């Protein structure tokens, strides 16, 4: 009769296995690790603060549209948000060729600048058109034309801007309002930079 023998673990192997299984036992059974009620509430407090801070950050960054919707109307707001094609047109004494803004880097900043309630000084609102400011060489007037040739979600929208004073209003409307002092130079610099770049590209063409 043949008896099969199996190798029994050596004493050293058994010792090693026992040591391995109990190597981290102190981390799970350490009497110093305790979850107290105070610690639990501190964790809840930190989590709540993180959630509130995130919500405030999202709210602060979100474009506010209540006053601008009342001022421009929902169609203009839609055009500024989703308009497929945007062009810059000379107004008053300004002289330059129509500039195609569609796809221009930074165009999203222009959209937000004109959309957000907080970018306007609403106390400056006056029942006069922007166009009435654009008759002299001392002014710097342009017009933004927004169209949606593919989806046809709105009719064309024309917005007049007088950049020297930061005045904004719909073309043909007897109403204008100034952007804030902080937004005025940024808006003027952005549009003038675009004009200079486009004009230089035109002058340097073959």
List keywords for this structure.
206 residues, alpha+beta, 7-stranded antiparallel β-sheet, 7 helices, 7 strands
Query: Ends: how far apart?
Result: 102 Å
Helix-strand makeup class: alpha+beta
- Report the major sheet: 7 strands, antiparallel
Q: What average pLDDT do the residues reach?
A: 79
Q: How much helix is in the residues?
A: 40-55%
**What's the helix count?**
7
Measured by DSSP, the beta-strand proportion falls in 15-25%
Low-confidence parts: 55-61
Order of helices and strands: HHHHHEEHEEEEEH
How many individual β-strands? 7
Rg, alpha carbons: 33 Å
Q: What spatial form do the alpha-carbon principal axes imply?
A: elongated
Strand order of the largest sheet: 2-1-4-5-6-7-3
What report would you give on this structure?
By secondary structure, this protein is of the alpha+beta class. Helices cover 42% and strands 17% of the residues. It is built from seven helices and seven strands; from the N terminus they run αααααββαβββββα. The chain has helices at residues 11-21, 25-29, 37-61, 66-72, 74-82, 107-115, 183-203; strands at residues 85-90, 99-100, 120-126, 141-147, 157-162, 167-170, 176-179. The protein has a seven-stranded antiparallel sheet with strand order 2-1-4-5-6-7-3, with helices on one face. The radius of gyration is 33 Å and the shape is elongated.
């Amino acid at each position: 009769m043949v008896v099969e023998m199996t190798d029994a673990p050596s004493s050293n192997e058994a010792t090693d296995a026992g040591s391995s299984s109990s190597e981290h036992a102190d981390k799970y059974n350490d009497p110093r690790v305790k979850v107290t009620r105070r610690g639990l509430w501190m964790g809840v407090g930190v989590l709540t603060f993180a959630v509130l801070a995130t919500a405030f950050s999202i709210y602060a960054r979100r474009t506010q549209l209540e006053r601008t919707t009342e001022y421009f109307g929902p169609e203009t707001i839609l055009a500024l948000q989703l308009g497929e094609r945007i062009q810059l047109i000379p107004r008053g004494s300004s002289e330059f060729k129509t500039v195609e803004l569609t796809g221009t880097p930074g165009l999203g900043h222009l959209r937000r600048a004109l959309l957000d309630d907080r970018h306007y000084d609403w106390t400056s609102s006056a029942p006069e058109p922007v166009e009435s400011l654009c008759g002299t060489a001392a002014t710097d007037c342009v017009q933004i034309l927004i169209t949606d040739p593919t989806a046809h979600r709105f009719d064309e929208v024309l917005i007049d801007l007088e950049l020297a004073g930061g005045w904004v209003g719909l073309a043909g409307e007897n109403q204008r309002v100034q952007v804030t002092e902080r937004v005025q130079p940024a808006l003027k610099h952005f549009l003038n930079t675009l004009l200079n770049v486009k004009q230089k590209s035109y002058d340097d063409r073959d």
